[in-house]
Each structure stands twice: as C-alpha cells, then as structure tokens.
Write a structure and sequence with these properties.
Blueprint lengths: L9 H15 L18 E7 L4 H6 L13 E7 L5 H9 L21 H6 L4 E6 L8 H7 L15 E4 L5 E3 L1 H13 L6 E7 L17 H22 L3 E7 L21 H4 E9 L10 E3 L5 H10 L13 H5 L8 E3 L3 E6 L2 E6 L4 E3 L3
Parallel strand pairs: 1-6, 1-7, 2-9, 3-6
Antiparallel strand pairs: 2-8, 4-5, 7-8, 10-11, 11-12, 12-13
Helix pairs in contact: 6-7
C-alpha cells in the first residue's frame, strides 16, 4: 500500500490516489494453468447481497445473530469500494486483478481479471442466479458486459415472491432460490462448479405485496440471516463439498451521517463500504473448530480471489489437518479507496477524506 507520510493537501492526496491505482494495476491472482491430477472437485457459491454493512447490522441490533459465529473465516475490515450495485458486482466478478478506478469498470479488463472465467478454464461449470429479475438499472446487462458473466440465468419460474422492489419488480424468496441451486447443481455434485448469486431482500424501498410502506429492515435482515443459517445446516447435512463466500455489494446507509441522510448512498462513505465478508467450507473431513478466524487487515476483492486460488486443488476438504493459519495469512491487503462516478473517499493517515466532482479533498465529517 502506498505510504501516507506527506501532509493531507489536495495535491498530495491526488498524488497518493494515482500511486494507489498504479500499484493496483500491477497486482493479480495467479491461477495455475491446470489442476493437479489428484485435485478434489468442489463447488464455489458466492452470495452477493445488496445493502448490508457492519454499520447496518449494528443499527438493526443483529451483531450477535448466530450466523456470524458460523463462518470459518470472517473479514472485519473489508472495503466494497463502491456504494452502488452495478459497480459492486463488476468489482467482485473482476476480483482477480487489483482495484481499478470507477471509470475503468466500464472498459474491457484483461481476461485474467475475471474470477469466474479463471475458474471456467480449470473446469468449473459456471452458474448465475439472482433473487430478482436483474432489469433495474440494467444490472444483468452490466454483469454480462462488464463482469464477463455470460452463462444463462438460472430458471426463476414459480419461485415464490416475498417482496416487491420499489419499482414493483419481484424479489424472490432466498430459501427457494438456494434450494433450486441445490437441485440444479445436484447432478454435478461430484464435479466442479462456480456460482454467482446476487440477491436484494434488504434493498431500500422493498415492500410486501399490497403494502406501499417500505418493509422493516431489521425484520428482513433477521429473516435473511435465519435463512442463510438454515441453508448452511442443510448444506452440512448434504455432504457436498462447497466453499461459500458471502460478500455484500455495499451497505444500506441505515444510520446516515453528517454528510448523507439515512438511505442515501451517493458518497461511498466508510460506514457504507465497510462490509461483512464470511467464508465457510462444507463437507470437510476436518472442519474448522471454534470462533471464526478474523482477518482485520484492510482487504478487498483480491483477497477473495487469492483465497480461492489457495484452495483450488480441493485438498482442504479431504486433509486430516488443515493449516488454517497458513491458509489465511498473508492475503493481499488493499488500502480503503471507494468511489462512485462523482465521489471518491479514501482513508489517509487514519482519517477519511472525500473529493466531490474532481474538486478539492476535504475531511469527511465525523
């Protein structure tokens, strides 16, 4: 990470940001050209949930929900790098390269930046699932054009609709979608697959059918955490070898701050971009015992890609003893830089600074 020794003037912060991007442009995960002959097949399920940050969980009073103690690995200082859905999904799908500017998300990236393509080359079948239709804001289009995810959307026929989005579009029941994933992938359970699941039950403006008022966030979050926890139990029972990674797109700004009211996400402030990321392995011969391993170094998507690379041979599922310390230490660190099209937020000398519309940097009001 570039040094932060110069005083925080606009010129110095601009120079630091340029150094950051130059350094990030040189970073990438190194995938092998092939897997060893004795590699063990497993499935990767990446759950990309909208509107969930540590700040939101705290505001909803759900920090002690049992779900959080059931992960094997938990990132406690993970930066989503944006506060909007489209860019968040693109960043996750391009996790195998260092962090790029917001503008560059909409330019083609090197082929080796696309996490799911890297896995496809090694024989992982791609799956794409959504808990919604993907139409709002051209989300599905962005996932395809900029995230490189070309595989067909998993069938949504007859999925129960539990909520409606603010635009009236269906929000499907997560348990039903995850069960459909279990059914669809059942046939390839002894082969390799990689699934990207994007879901938005916590999105602002979601309401119950026939009710115009936005549904209570805490009730929706409680339900989602309960469902995910129950799904984990099912997965454990199934005996399938699965690596689950839960990565929020960005927070929901449930609390608001001195610069933005609750629900507003125009500026990717630290409370919106500091998101809970959890990793859990199922079907292991020697499962992780005790509390989750906490990674509290500043991290972002490259750390997820590197973690996937470290377990590609699937031996983690069959080993008598797993060296968790080795697995989780020395993952790439990324300085917290977040941006939307007109706002950039960085942490400099342990303080947040914001730049709007290319103007001067100012301290983010605390």
């Amino acid at each position: 990470m570039p040094a932060q020794t110069a005083p925080p003037t606009t010129a110095n912060l601009n120079a630091w940001l340029n150094n950051f991007y130059n350094a990030e442009a040189k970073r990438k995960s190194t995938f092998p050209s092939s897997l060893p002959a004795d590699a063990q097949p497993f499935e990767l399920l990446v759950i990309n949930i909208c509107s969930l940050s540590w700040s939101d969980i705290e505001a909803a009073g759900l920090m002690s929900h049992p779900l959080w103690s059931h992960f094997d690995i938990e990132f406690k200082n993970f930066n989503s790098a944006t506060s909007y859905s489209g860019p968040a999904a693109i960043r996750l799908l391009r996790a195998s390269c260092g962090q790029t500017s917001h503008t560059n998300l909409y330019q083609p990236a090197n082929n080796d930046c696309y996490l799911f393509d890297n896995l496809s080359k090694l024989g992982f079948t791609q799956h794409l699932m959504m808990g919604h239709n993907g139409q709002f804001g051209g989300f599905l289009k962005e996932v395809r054009e900029n995230g490189g995810m070309q595989t067909e959307l998993m069938d949504q026929t007859n999925l129960p609709v539990i909520l409606l989005g603010f635009d009236g579009s269906p929000v499907y029941d997560d348990t039903a979608v995850l069960n459909r994933w279990l059914d669809v992938t059942e046939k390839d359970k002894n082969s390799r697959s990689a699934t990207f699941y994007n879901t938005l039950p916590l999105h602002d403006g979601n309401h119950y059918p026939g009710v115009s008022k936005t549904a209570d966030y805490k009730a929706r979050a409680q339900k989602f955490f309960d469902e995910l926890d129950a799904f984990f139990t099912e997965l454990e029972k199934s005996g399938r070898k699965v690596m689950v990674v839960v990565v929020p797109e960005h927070g929901g700004a449930l609390k608001g701050d001195r610069m933005q009211v609750s629900g507003l996400r125009d500026i990717p402030s630290p409370s919106i971009t500091d998101v809970p990321v959890g990793v859990k392995f199922f079907g292991m011969k020697a499962p992780h015992q005790g509390a989750p391993i906490v990674i509290d170094q500043p991290s972002s998507f490259l750390a997820i890609s590197d973690l996937v690379v470290r377990v590609l041979d699937g031996k983690i599922f069959t080993e008598d003893n797993v060296d968790w310390k080795k697995l989780t230490s020395g993952l790439p660190q990324t300085a917290p830089v977040s941006e939307n099209s007109n706002a950039v937020v960085i942490q400099y000398q342990d303080k947040p600074y914001v730049r709007l519309n290319g103007g001067d940097w100012v301290p983010y009001p605390q």
